[in-house]
Amino acid sequence: MRKNRRELSDEFRIIAIDDEQGILDSIEALLNRNGYMCEGFTNPLEGLEDIRKNHYDLLVLDYFMQPIHGEEVVEEIRKFNKELYILLLTGHKDLAPPISTIKSLDIQAYCEKSDRLDQLQLLIESGIKSISQMRTIQQFRDGLQSILGSVPKIYQLQPIGSILEEILIQLLPMVNSEDAFILVDDIPSIEQSNGQTEHKSIYKGIGKYKVEIEEFTELLDPELMAAIGQARTDMTVIKRPDGIIFPLGDETNSAIGAIYVNSIDADEGTKLLEIYAAQVASSISNAFLHSLVNTKNEELNSTYAQLKVRYMDTIEVLRLAVDAKDEYTQGHSDRVAYYASKIGESFALGDEDREKLRIAGVFHDIGKIGTADDILLKNQKLEKAEYEQIKRHPIKGAMILSAVSMFQDIVPIVRHHHEHYDGKGYPDGIKGEKIEFFARIISVADAFDAMMSDRHYRRRLSLLESKWQLTQGAGTQFDAEVVGRFMNVLDTDQELRERLELNEGE
Q: What are the chain's domains?
């Protein structure tokens, strides 16, 4: 309680007026002891003049004074200041002003003087809380006015970049921030004559994020990427030590992007920003739906293409960083992608699906970027808590990919590549055909490469031993059909056999 009070003390200005110096000294000592600064006056006229010239949040005022009483002081104050919180002190309850006077002068509280200051302390704390709440209400009032003022700009025929910059300018004061960005990368667009849907993206930053889209991904660390992905996936506000993320949803509450505000002072403004973010998302979606934004399609398409390339590059860096953590797993993701592609061929998948499999294989372990090295490199059995950390990497990898919409088809594959066909896998414990088909393929490819590779805790298995392990797990850990297809590939694919024989000879 003391700590919180001291943290608040610099935010509030208190003045005390009492013509008894001893009482004034006691009030000042009480306030100082509890972390508040206080100006004190024994002359009510001097105190009144100081209130005219300076801002105060709370007044502790004696009722009987010379040359004027407390109620006269209040009458004068209310002529120019309606907001000041006033706590009136009386020598005895029988000498207190009538309730009608207290109400008419908008006096918030009164207290009898005594040697014990407990009641006064409680009333002052209550007053500070009320003042704080009134500030929040005022912040919401001002913020909502800003929202109402900025909404028409969405529908004006002006460049979308100008609209988004205005949105950011409006929201930053709500959380005392200077740095923020809006990323929208799943804008509603009209399906073309060839049946394909054009993907469009817009990005706007302010402060340190006022950069081109090519530089944007360089400002994203893995934790922020995962947090953006979580906000979009769960359509929920994500608070971080360095800021706050608001998802942007369309009329069906599907994510079309996110707003990130770099701020450590967002608690009181969070609810207001949620309202603001919802309004922004709706306005952007409607503006594009009705073709009211004066931006060339080529420009939006170009932004999408640049974002995809840059984000792919960023994830590739993360993937290589994961591989580099351990000499035994270097090249693992590339090999998993290769085996998965071979399995995909056995199912006669088309080029697009095989490419999806390849990308999923390459990126399936990026969630390990945040896992401690002493866990990844441990050569003994993992403790339960350590294993729980390992089990989170599919979720984190999925969240990193979810930060942008262009990997939405890859996300469930990455999230579920450790699920077991019998439901005993992780992270969600789903089973059978509820597991994404491509995730079942990655699961087999991933396990096979692990068996065929040296690890800290064991030597690699032979090809024959690895095949036996896969067949033993068919129908429980693995999809039996996927295992069967892979067994056939291992027996008949000459390129794959030569590659495996070369590896076994090393």
A: 2-134 (3.40.50.2300), 156-295 (3.30.450.40), 325-504 (1.10.3210.10)
Separation CA 354–CA 409 (nearest Å): 13
Please give the distance of CA 373 from its chain centroid, rounded to a whole number: 26
CA distance 80 to 89: 22
**Other Cβ atoms within 10 Å of 144 Cβ, number:** 14
pLDDT interval class at 470 (50, 70, 90): very high
Q: Which residue has the tokens 């960023």?
A: 314
Closest to 214 (Cα-Cα) out of 321, 319, 314 = 314
CA pair distance 214, 221, nearest whole angstrom: 15
- For residue 292, the Cα-to-chain-centroid distance in whole angstroms is 30
Please name the helix (run of DSSP H) or strand (run of DSSP E) that holds residue 179, with its range, or none.
strand 179-184
- In angstroms, the CA 39 to CA 130 distance is 20
Number of Cβ within a 10 Å radius of residue 64: 15
Q: Nearest Cα to 228, choosing from 218, 239, 212?
A: 239
Model confidence band, residue 186 (pLDDT cutoffs 50, 70, 90): low
């079942």: which residue's tokens? 440
Helices (H) and strands (E) in the chain, counts: 21, 10
How far apart are the C-alpha atoms of 483 and 420, rounded to whole Å?
13
Q: Tokens 């087999």 correspond to what residue? A: 444
Mean pLDDT of 69-97: 83
Q: Which residues of 103-126 are buried (b: 16+ CB within 10 A; e: fewer)?
A: eebebbbbbebeeebeebeebbee
| pLDDT 10s digits, 389-411 | 889 999 999 999 999 888 889 99
3-state percent helix, strand, coil for the chain, nearest multiple of 5? 60, 10, 30
- d(CA 184, CA 280) in angstroms, rounded, equals 11
